[in-house]
Amino acid sequence: PVMGAIAVLVCLLDMIRTRFCGRGIVRFVPAAAAVVALAALSWATIARNNVWSSRMALWSDVASKSPTKWRHLANLAAAYAEEEGDLENAEACYRKVLVLEPRARSIRENLANVLNARKDYAGARDVCLEGIAHGIDSPEIHYNLGLALCNLGRIEDGARRLSLALERRSGFRPGHIALGQVYAHLRRFDLA
Q1: Averaged over 40-63, what is the pLDDT?
Q2: Chain centroid, CA 177 distance in Å
Q3: Residues 116, 107: contact at Cβ < 8 Å?
Q4: Rounded CA separation 133/117 (Å)
């Protein structure tokens, strides 16, 4: 699209030059203006393309321009976690999102994942319990709560939450794996 606009601009400037400009240095003014316009548009295009160079660059730019839009912050948090492996900044972004949209189910699930990965099991437990209080009843919430409780030493409670995750979605593979590991830890091999 930009190249087409540039081509049209060059054609228009050439028409102006041939029709209205006389001889001498004046006839080069439209051409010089076209070169300056082309350079400015090219620079702007290159600068804008740099924003699209990675997910991190894109969502940082979008979130900085729209700080009150929670979906942009959520995508920035996911980029921090997945692309950069920066769980601390991912957590900060997810927490900002929850201030803007406390009932965001996937954000609570993702924040609980991040907190469990950072071994902040009490934080993960609290985020999950707040989500349940907001009416979130997903397998991921119960799974993350189960993991947090098990890691806090409340293994029976954790096993109950992992079972709830499987009641919500019977084919939830992470829940099956975690519950099997819990039962093996408890030496209840008949259930593992």
Answers
A1: 79
A2: 27
A3: no
A4: 23
Nearest to 116, CA basis, from 174, 176, 185: 174
Q: How far is CA 30 from CA 1, 12, 43, 69, in A?
A: 22, 9, 20, 44
Tell me the HSE value of 64 on the side-chain side, using a 13 A CA sphere.
7
Alpha-carbon dihedral angle through residues 176, 178, 180, 181, given to the nearest 10 degrees: 160
**Cβ-based neighbours of 10, under 8 Å, separated by 6 or more:** 34, 38
| Kind and range of the H or E run holding 177 | helix 173-185
Tokens of 90: 């991912």
Q: What local confidence, expressed as pLDDT, does residue 148 receive?
A: 97
124, with CB counted inside 10 A (0-12, 13-18, 19+), is buried
Residue 134 has pLDDT above 80, yes or no: yes
Q: Is 126 exposed, middle or buried (0-12, 13-18, 19+ CB in 10 A)?
A: middle
How confident is residue 29, by pLDDT bands cut at 50, 70 and 90?
low
According to DSSP H, which parts of 2-103 are helical?
Answer: 2-20, 29-51, 55-65, 70-79, 87-100
Measure CA of the first residue to CA of the last residue in the chain; give whole Å.
60
Name the pTM for this structure: 0.73
Do residues 13 and 34 touch, judged by C-beta distance below 8 A? yes
